[in-house]
Amino acid sequence: MRMVAQSVTTNQWKGQFMSRNTLNLTSQVYEYLLQVSLRESPLLASLRQETLNLPESNMQIAPEQGQFMSLLVKLLNAKYLLEVGTFTGYSALAVAEALPDDGHITCCDVSEEFTNIAQRYWEKSGLKHKFTLKLQPALDTLEGLLAEGQEEKYDMAFIDADKGNYLNYYEKCLQLIRSGGVILIDNVLWNGAVADSNNQEEDTLAIRALNEHLHTDNRVDLSLVPIGDGLTLVRKK
Hints:
Number of strands: 7
Largest sheet: 7 strands, mixed
Distance between the termini: 54 Å
Radius of gyration: 20 Å
Order of helices and strands: HHHHEHEHEHEHEHEE
Strand content: 15-25%
Low-confidence stretches: 1-10
Strand order of the largest sheet: 3-2-1-4-5-7-6
Shape: globular
């Protein structure tokens, strides 16, 4: 009888504290997550705080996402990276800190204003030699890299730019990364809008189309992770 009672108590505990769904983070739990996990360099923290003062600060990735991306760089032993959409440079600096000294990241953006902030912090970091910034439409840069024979050269790519071109960016990056390389795609949950069939806005439709395309793309392994605004990871087979 004692064993039965103990089993019931254990099952009740599991029902209360365990879930088959991803935990919905409250502000309190999120702060705890940062306290016990985040290892943000002082320079990254300074860049994040400066970016928070911009009207466009919502374009900044979350610090735990930057740390996650930096861990992926190390797990992949990555050396050559691509970034489509650099903004003020937080994500690029986060992964550059994880690259070996002879590693390199090619950054694509069209904003001189925002990337001036990025370059200032890259200079401060002592890692400026790891960055190449291409200030032109990203598709032009990606097509140029392919024309230069850099197909399958890169280990990892991060896509976080204009949503209407997400599928085009993905296809170009898939050609540029090696077999076993990983593409990360940001904002794939779009604050929940992709799950709302009534939302027919252009950006929502573009992200929804990409998500549906990736789900059936047998060229890659796939996982959508609920970090930040949704981060998709695809591994090229």
